[in-house]
Design a protein that fits this description.
The chain is α/β, with parallel strands linked by helices and about 220 residues long. It has two domains: about 130 residues, Rossmann fold; about 70 residues, Helicase, Ruva Protein, domain 3. Helices cover about 45% and strands about 10% of the residues. It has a five-stranded parallel beta sheet with strand order 2-3-4-1-5, with helices on both faces. α4 packs parallel to α5. The chain is elongated and about 60 Å long. The termini are close together.
Length: about 220
């Protein structure tokens, strides 16, 4: 039963406010600018390892665009083939390396539309455009706009964020506890923060402090 404790508190919705920028300040600024039409360039492609924050930023861009009155839609590659895409102001497409043949043609045409002045496109994948396992003419077009590599947070960055988050919730998180959580739980920051919130909830529920034995008990 205790193994389910970490599912009590869901991760917060992705937005720019809960994204830890670290060394990605230029990328965050560029995506923000495209989402609210403050940049003349309509295309942006971001690449990096799984769990580095690409999906968070794409969803954050859509959230921001919607909040500013624009039409916007986030799509994973698996949803793109069957998606009805009217004249959105912003489309964000994730995991482009997984696009099938029909979806690649669809994205090819969408990029052409965007370049002609119809909407904006932010896309993301695991590698730089020319290394993607996609049609050559599509990878070329993905490289027409801005290209950024996203740099994942270091464990030291995550440790600092977790300790600060705990302080904001009113308790002290000892580095040994945070370090153990980083090494034994999902490594992306939203999951780590959600786990910490759940641990806090469980600690209050059982009237026990958040210690390494308590964390090990929950994770066991």
């Amino acid at each position: 039963m205790q193994q389910l404790v970490l599912d009590i508190v869901p991760a917060p919705p992705p937005c720019f406010d809960n994204f830890v920028t670290a060394t990605n300040a230029e990328l965050v600024h560029a995506i923000h600018a495209i989402a609210v039409r403050q940049d003349q360039e309509p295309l942006l492609y971001v690449w990096g390892a799984a769990g580095s924050g690409k999906s968070h930023l794409l969803q954050a861009s859509v959230h921001l665009a919607l909040s500013q009155g624009f039409t916007a839609h986030y799509l994973d590659a698996s949803e793109f083939a069957t998606a009805d895409l009217p004249a959105y102001d912003l489309v964000a497409i994730d995991n482009v390396e997984q696009l099938d043949a029909a979806s690649q043609i669809k994205l090819f045409n969408l990029i052409n539309q965007v370049r002609e002045g119809h909407g904006r496109l932010i896309s993301a994948g695991l590698t730089a455009p020319m290394q993607l396992p996609l049609r050559a003419d599509l990878t070329t077009r993905l490289g027409w706009g801005l290209i950024y590599q996203i740099h994942p947070l270091s464990d030291a960055d995550k440790l600092s964020v977790l300790i600060t988050h705990a302080q904001a919730r009113g308790f002290t998180l000892h580095p040994g506890v945070a370090d153990y959580l980083i090494r034994h739980w999902r490594r992306d920051l939203p999951s780590l923060l959600a786990a910490l919130d759940s641990l806090d909830h469980y600690s209050l529920q059982t009237q026990r402090p958040i210690t390494l034995p308590l964390l090990k008990e929950v994770l066991s």
